[in-house]
Amino acid sequence: MSLAELQHLTADRRGKPRLRSEERKEQRKLRRVSERDNKAAAIFLLPWLIGLAGLTVGPMLVSLYLAFTDYNLLQDANFTGFDNIVKMINDERLHQSLGVTFAYVLIGVPLQLVVALVLAMLLDRGMRGLSFYRSALYLPSLLGGSVAIAVLWRVIFGDDGLFNGLLAFFGVTGQNWISNPDTALSTIILLHIWQFGSPMVIFLAGLRQIPRQYYEAASIDGASAWRQFRSVTLPLLSPIVFFNLVLGIINAFQSFTQAFIVSGGTGGPADSTLFYTLYLYQEGFGSFLMGYASSLAWLLLVIIGAFTAVNFWAAKYWVFYDD
Amino acid sequence: MTTETADQPSLSPAPAPASSRTAPPVTGKPARTSLARAGKHVLMVAMVVIALYPVVWMAVSSLRPEGRIFTDTGILLDTFNPENYTNGWNALSHPFGTYLLNSAIVTLGSIIGNLVSCSMAAYAFARLSFRFRRTTFAIMLMSIMLPIHVVIVPQYVIFAQLGWINTFLPLIVPKFLAVDGFFVFLMVQFIRGLPRELDEAARIDGAGHARIFLQIILPLMKPALATAAIFTFIWTWGDFFTQLVFVTDPALYTVPVALRSFVDAQSQSSYGAMFAMNVVSLLPVLLAFAVGQRYLIRGIATTGMK
């Protein structure tokens, strides 16, 4: 959005009609001043440039090199060609972690957005107490990423946990949802969905931008509530849904804390909660196989990049821009 | 807020009840909508209860005797049992206050670092024209999307060589180098919204960029600074991954890392103590939310930050 804005600004400047001579003189003076900005910009951007070189671009290049080595922190790195890639192809725990992470991302992210959108729609129609509901429903997003809540989740879905207590209230016998490989991941997906508050707030802001006249016109034409949702709300909100989807997927691929805490750092039971980043952490900082961990990190970047690219490609078919 | 008033007229009866033919639909509609409205409130209250129940239950349970945590699913507090808090405070190798202090140091350092470095970068991107501005800005935007995992191994090696492992420096110094592009972006957007006439007037009066930045832009961008400060606070306070990687000395544990070691030492049943410290760890976040809610909600709505 901001890039487009920037282009818009520069295009404006180019397209300006000829100015009267004094204005041009003034303009030239300003431009002369602004040409001197190079030096000022270097000073203002110095911290960022150091960070970019020393903490981002430099480490990325090093990481790319390490990805093709057997570096393990204790010994010097040896270039091993495609050994790490071959290892990845045959690494069953990696495949398991990919499966777990895909399931988490592809189930958790859309479900969370659906819940967020439904609640935002319910809240939008000028409800009394809207700001209270919004704040209360936002709270889980604020707290949900913390270690404390992950610890709580572990207890809630444990043997004698709150969840089983509530089930017993309805006469259902529960189980230990955390130590069962079939259900452990579901509890973490639920934890993700529970944090629907922040996309909800973004949706609410988006819904407020939709002109009311559109709905009035639609209802005069006899459109039902569902039809109004399909034909007015959804198209006009689609850029925001898209934005939430892209960011949600990027973030979900990097989820770490929840799986780490709920599984006690193991990714268990039976690797059923072995998130990708958790596996990366185990390899890099548990076994100190930092060369291999770098390969894993780059694979993650490629996967996230691919998902984002597909998202942008698919956007053509369903994201509606009103201009 | 304006929509709220827009809905009101439908509640008031029709001004001219003389035409009896139109009366039934007019009186019928408010009854239905007010019922629907009540139903919606019931639904929303139910959602709020579901959303907050786990947290409230934990807070209440932390004040219950140990044995009742697993038998009582309710959230009515009939006993007041602060023992869990004293037990939890002293359960680990250091008193919990140490971890709180460590987290406070890291968080405060991060806030100062982000405010200084990101606002400087943002001023350059928003107000200065320089070579490669568009390229560098695009790079900055892309860096927002970069997973930390891609750079964490080399960063670890760099910090290890500098002797910074088991200090707070790997957690604080990067913030002074504007690595959180999100905040640069947020501040750029904000500065662009400020009228340029202000700095042009100052420039004609002979002010340089340093003065324009410090005396004109910075005071005007307080809302953006507040948003960045609150988000930095919440993210740093809750950050687990980098703190887990860079801090391994128990004396330097931050709150999230300390809570994690609670889980590891969980063989004996001390859930009450663990819950108590969980609650303690969440209190500053709740406080920040209460104080800065306005900035938070606005920040999320405008930039889509979490």
From TrEMBL, chain A:
It is found in: Cell membrane. It is a multi-pass membrane protein. PANTHER family: ABC TRANSPORTER PERMEASE PROTEIN (PTHR30193), ABC TRANSPORTER PERMEASE PROTEIN YESP-RELATED (PTHR30193:SF1). Keywords: Cell membrane, Membrane, Transmembrane, Transmembrane helix, Transport. Its main location: membrane. The keyword Transmembrane helix applies. The chain crosses the membrane at residues 40-68, 102-123, 135-156, 184-207, 234-253, 259-281, 293-314. PROSITE patterns: ABC_TM1. One of its GO terms (cellular component) is plasma membrane. Residues 9-31 are annotated as: Disordered. Residues 98-311 form the ABC transmembrane type-1 domain. Belongs to the binding-protein-dependent transport system permease family. This is Sugar ABC transporter permease. CDD domains: TM_PBP2. One of its GO terms (biological process) is transmembrane transport. Coiled coil: none annotated. Residues 10-31 have a biased composition (Basic and acidic residues).
TrEMBL record, chain B:
It comes from Streptomyces himalayensis subsp. himalayensis. GO terms for biological process: transmembrane transport. The chain crosses the membrane at residues 42-60, 99-125, 137-159, 171-191, 212-237, 271-291. Belongs to the binding-protein-dependent transport system permease family. Its main location: membrane. This is Carbohydrate ABC transporter permease. It is a multi-pass membrane protein. Coiled coil: none annotated. Residues 9-25 have a biased composition (Low complexity). One of its GO terms (cellular component) is plasma membrane. Keywords: Cell membrane, Membrane, Transmembrane, Transmembrane helix, Transport.
